[in-house]
Predict the 3D structure of the following.
Amino acid sequence: MEPAIEANAAAANLLRLIKQLLLEKAYEGVRMLFLSPNEASRNMQHMPLIAMDIYNDICVVNLVDEVNGREPELFDCANELLKLVAEHAPLQEMMMELMEKIEESKSHAVFAAYLRAMQVILLRQGQDKPQAVMWCLQSVATCLHDLPLPEYLSEGYDEAAGRLVEQEKQVEDLLAHYITVGLFEAPLLVEILQRDARPDTVIFRHCAMSRRNALACFLVQLLGKPLALLEMSYVKDDLTHTYVHQVVKNLTQEATKTIGGDPFYLLALVEKRARWERKLNAAKGVYEMTSQNIFLIEDLMPLHALAMYYHAIFVHDLLPPTTPKIYSPVFLFESVLYLVTELLRQPEPPLQHCGLRLFEHILINCGVTSVPHSSLQLDVHKRLCDELCKIVGYSPQVALRQLGLHVLRHYILAFDDQGKYLILKNLLETLQHDGLMGYLSAMYKDLVDKALTAHRKCSVRIPPEFDGKHFREMLMLCVFVLPNDVKSDLLLHADRICNAINILRYFAVIDKQNITGFWDVLPEIEKRLLVPLGTALDFSMAHYKAYKERVENGQSASDDALMKKQLQMLAVNISNSGIAGDGDSSLPDIGRQEKLDVLASSITSLESLRSIYVRANEVIEQNARQRKLLQDAGSAPFPAPAPV
């Protein structure tokens, strides 16, 4: 008999023997065929001939959840055979089979079985065909991305709920998948770092397709969704580390190894990704220059995942000791702005929270002081402010709003005086949220106060952003809060009106020497704010009292559309009735006593607002008289008023 025919016959006999032993449930016998030294030396030589038959006839059939639940020993035996198959089967054919099975796997047990075989295939692959390695890794990422998770993770949760999130069965299953992936890629990383090392003579990194770069993209990609949705479970001061933290730490450290120990290297690519639009070649389905740099491909390295990588680096304190010290704080600040903006624009509150934590760390812990106002020429500042103000003003998550306001303040204070002025001015000109506008107005007042204090104590010249023309422009933005003059809804804008009045009273007291030019602007403010506000207060008070009297007398108010609209809005705000204040003229469905309670509350609010208004007028008039008396008495002359 010819050797080839004899080998085929022996291989066929081995296949039949394996099937028979499995039929008889003699699983230990199957193992001995490949573990016993005598048997293994004879049987291993036949595996290349029957590997795909074993895969199709045994592995595919038995590596399913039903078999795992009914007969786990058979599942385990098929799992061991699959590893042998991966060592001897045709490389490319087996790779395609495993990619399909990994993407289709629905349970951790099946996923782990095929992933272990994929590990063997990739190690056999070596440095050849890095594109194939990238495809294999993407199939793993696809499987993880498609795993089910509780809906509340995307809707948002607080840190207290985050401490319990790992007890969810679906989250536990997801983390088991990630831990298995860590076991899968660890030997692959070691092999790649050994064989794909960058020669010492090479200065610039190789960014084209390679096994090393494909693995770097894969590891960073895994830090994005869905793992990023679990980041609310991380509390920095905890003595114990959660599984989420351990997974994030492992992925981050190994990703850093693949890019050569300098985690800031990828920051240089962030601006290319986020600032400059690259041309799309529709025929090839890729962006310009991505063939030379795979880090520019969104599908391989999503920008939000890259942002989560730097979130781990900074917030989780995973900056390696090999990090070069040459990066300036302003470079880190400007580069991270793009990543923070990307996280803030994500629809999921956990990712928004990560964006705020990352930004907070950069502002407070990375030495960012006195950022030059020239940095504001970057468009990313506008996009960042837009996203940040949306969260601060309208996020349903209280913790997000509070942290966002804290970060917004630190962001503004990080700039030089001109930068602070430009940011505040642009925000006050574009925002529509009264509470946030009032906060920013008070912030500008505090900045002027600090400048005035330095001027008095140290004779330091007050910066031009806080006096003269610039002061006038900002003061106008801060105090002109009556959009419809005397017809403005005072209760709707009550918070900002109170803030504006307090700002006027403050400058009347603190700046008697007219260093800022406040007293030169006051006549215009009286004309455009104080006089109309007094009229509006009288009108509104009379209107509400008259309406209250009509309700007390049981009279209809169907002809008073304005009052109906205001009552509807007040009913929503005070009684939380759930009626939308969208301009509908129909009265809310509340009783007579409820109407009286709402009206009494609104009248009390107006009286409080009027008392603040009256007191401010008294303070302004009193300080104006003092200024005039001092000037008439020939006391020390006041400095010449700054030009307005």
